[in-house]
Write a structure and sequence with these properties.
about 280 residues, mainly beta, Immunoglobulin-like, Lipocalin, 3 domains, eight-stranded antiparallel beta barrel, 1 helix, about 55% strand
Length: about 280
């Protein structure tokens, strides 16, 4: 009797007869507005898409894709695409299948975000993203109605710096304190001198009450993602560890959110926000 192996079963499965990829939307992507569903396949003349098991739609195919020639035995006209307005579909998770002559060759699961209408008209807005596409850069985004999304219109070298002096407040939400009267909301005016020297992070905080605190640790930044952690100690005897949970930096405002664990005689857990302004 001929032995049937797993490799033989895979070779005879329906999806083994089609080779290709569904590139956009990528697995786990979040989509909105109007964009192109695209990919490639070596096989088939009729390329169809199927969203969440609904009726299939045939898409334009035969686009030159030189990058797929090696996978398709030298054949280049393997690309396909379809312009799609995602707002006509319900928001939330969806599954998209791609088929060549009725045979599935790729599928992806992604999430649709709706702006509340199938097509927004008469809207205008702009925003600036700092430290994108690289640290020190600023990118201006402008709403484009035909695309139903924002596009980058300008990139500058003027991202605001966190370093220097800020004046504002330190607010805390304390819990699990050894002394129960220290639980709850607390806050004080503070001046913050923030520095970074080769990844060594320092904050000198001076409060209006005369309290002084020092935060020492390490700092790293990858684009818009900033991270800091270390130890801190204050003139009233408080000391503990801190880990940043969020940063906000604009030309005139800054905010650092921290998870602080006090050590010693007082062992509070603190959700703290250091915030300030400057000209």
């Amino acid at each position: 009797m001929k032995r049937i192996t797993l490799a033989m079963l895979v070779a005879t499965a329906p999806f083994a007869h089609a080779t290709g990829a569904l590139e956009n939307p990528a697995p786990g992507a979040i989509v909105s507005g109007i964009s192109v569903i695209s990919g490639w396949t070596c096989d088939g003349t009729k390329i169809e898409l199927e969203l969440d098991g609904a009726a299939r739609s045939q898409v334009s195919a035969g686009v030159d894709r030189a990058d797929t020639a090696s996978a398709c035995g030298g054949k280049r006209n393997n690309g396909f695409g379809q312009l799609t307005n995602w707002s006509v579909f319900p928001p939330g998770p969806h599954t998209l299948r791609a088929l060549a002559d009725g045979v599935e060759f790729a599928r992806t699961t992604f999430t649709i975000t709706s702006l509340g209408a199938e097509y927004l008209r008469g809207k205008s807005a702009s925003a600036t993203v700092y430290d994108f596409p690289a640290v020190g850069k600023s990118t201006t985004l402008q709403w484009q109605e035909p695309l139903q999304s924002f596009v980058a219109t300008e990139v500058r070298d003027d991202a605001p710096s966190l370093w220097g002096r800020w004046n504002g407040a330190n607010i805390e939400r304390r819990s699990n304190c050894a002394s129960s009267q220290n639980n709850g909301q607390h806050g004080t005016y503070g001046q913050f001198d923030i520095a970074n020297d080769g990844g060594i992070f320092t904050i000198i905080e001076t409060a209006v009450t005369g309290l002084a605190c020092t935060y020492n640790g390490t700092y790293s930044q990858d684009g818009t993602q900033r991270r800091a952690n270390g130890i801190y100690f204050c003139s009233d005897g408080k000391q503990g560890d801190f880990t940043s949970t969020g940063f906000l930096v604009t030309p005139t405002e800054m905010q650092i959110r921290m998870d602080i664990k006090l050590k010693g005689s007082e062992s509070c857990t603190i959700d703290a926000i250091l915030g300030g302004s400057r000209f």
